[in-house]
Every structure is written in structure tokens, then in C-alpha cells.
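Example (one chain per record):
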Amino acid sequence: MRQIGVWGVLGLWGLVCAGAVGYAMWQGYRGPAFAAAVGAFVILLLGMLLFAAKGVEQGLTAVGTGGGFLLGAGVFVVYIAYLVGTGSFSIARAGVMAAFVFVPLSLAVSAGPAAAGAWQDFLVVAGVWIVVKFGPSHWLWPYPGGRLAYVMTVLVAVNVAVATFVVLRRANGIGYSIGWGKNWGWYVAGSFAVFGCIAIPLGIGMRFIAFAPQWNRWSSLLFTSVAILFFTAWPEELLFRGLLQNFLTRASKNDLAGWWTASVFFGLSHITNMGFPNWRYVILATIAGIFYGWTWRKSGSIFASALVHAAVDAVWHFLFRTG
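Predicted structure:
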């Protein structure tokens, strides 16, 4: 794989930040609180993307255990600055964020030299998922009106996962990188196409989706697709493929078992979406997880599986209505 370098990642980061901030300003946001929220967003996004650049991971892992805690402390300081800047500081909020950041790091330290796939690894993965899925995100990120709650929580979660598993635990095979490798075009396009051939008729047959193109929304296709890639597909692929599937495979010493088990967990993680229990969503998400997991296995990178994931979500968003 030809991994993108630091300058390439910085350029990508700049484009995403410019688009997001420009859109927010177009919506009328201004003032000191907005500046504090923007500052937190751009720094957390930089942390998420920078470790996918060539050579960055090796640079911080050379610091040792302190590197993971240094990154975690940076995330916590950014959050405190957000609270102060938006006038929403409270000891309770700071305490909850401190636990979200430092408990996973402490668990990772307790694993010592154990190979990836220790019980601490699974506990951290489950805890991060629970916080993102069910945590008090709107309370943690009150400005502006909770509209950034999900995105900011995801950014913190990814930074915590990177600090825990990439820097501190130095888990192999995560594939936390942005680049392109040989035959990736076939893996990404093939996985997307075959999944579509299965999921579309199955979803229509289950009356879960219906073909309903949103032609009036196509002007936002690029912006929405980029947002889906970085704030939905990338974090979920890190969690369910780079970490969960990776650790399950190592713990079971069976590649197929890790792949299919992680796919089932991915499907079950959607059971509360749009009403509980949403078994139709679980079935389609499990099948999707199988294809995302296959792409990750073939490419060795969460970037490739995230591209398939983002393409599926974007097509669903613009071409189908959920029943």
C-alpha cells in the first residue's frame, strides 16, 4: 500500500475543516462560543487523521506508554477549552470526559505485555461503543444546541481508540492508514456491487427500503458523502474491523470466526436504530458487515472498508427511503 504522507493528510484535513466551518458560517454561526467549538473540532479531527499518515504512528509510539497518555491528555485539554469557551463548564462534565479518556488508557496499561485480544481490549472496545451509542453526548457537548454532539463524541472516541490501541498497546493489523494499494479498486468496487445486488432486493422484499431518489438533495452529495466517510464509516470501521474483528481473530486463532462474529456484532449494534428491536436493520447490517470485513481483510486497511461503507450509506441516503 502507498500510504499518504503527513503533508497529504494535512491538506485533506484543511479541506474538510474549510468545508465544515464554511458550512457552519453559512448557517449563521458566529462569536466566541462558535470559535471554541470550531477549535475543538479542528484539533480533534487533526488527531484522528494525522495518525493515518505515514510515519506518524512510529514517531509517537517511540515515546512509549507516555505517548498514549500524552495524546489522551491533549484530548481532555481540548474538551476543557471547549467547555470554558462555550460557557458550559461543569465539574460533572469534566469528570465524565476524564473517565472516557483515561479509563481505557489505564485498562490498556493493566494488560501489560499481553498480546492483542486480551480481555482489557474487548472491554475498552465495548465501553467506547456504549459511550458513543448510549452516552450523554448532548449533555457533554451542549453548544450549539447539541447539533455537534454526535460528531464531537465520535472524534473523541477515535482519538481515545488511537491512543489506546495504536500508540499504547501497539496492536498489529489494525490498518489505521489512508492510502491506496494494488487491486484495491477491485476490492472496493466488487464488495460494493455484490452487496448491492444482495441488499437492495432483500431490503425491498422485507419492506425495509423503497426506491425513492432524492433528486432535490443531490447538490449536497459531495459534502454529505465526505461527512459520512469521516464521521460514520471511518469510526465504525476502526471499531468493528480494525479492532473487534482483529482481536476476535487473534483470540480465536481463526480468521473466519473473527470475521463472521464481528459482522454479527456489527449487525446487532443497529438493533436500536429506528425503533427497537429492528431486526430488518440487523439482518442487512450483518450482511454489510460481512462485505466490509472482507474488504478490510483483503486490503489490510480500514480506509478501503470505510470507502465501501460510505458508498453504501451515501447511496442509501440519496436513492432509498427507509420504510
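Caption: The first helix runs from residue 6 to 26.
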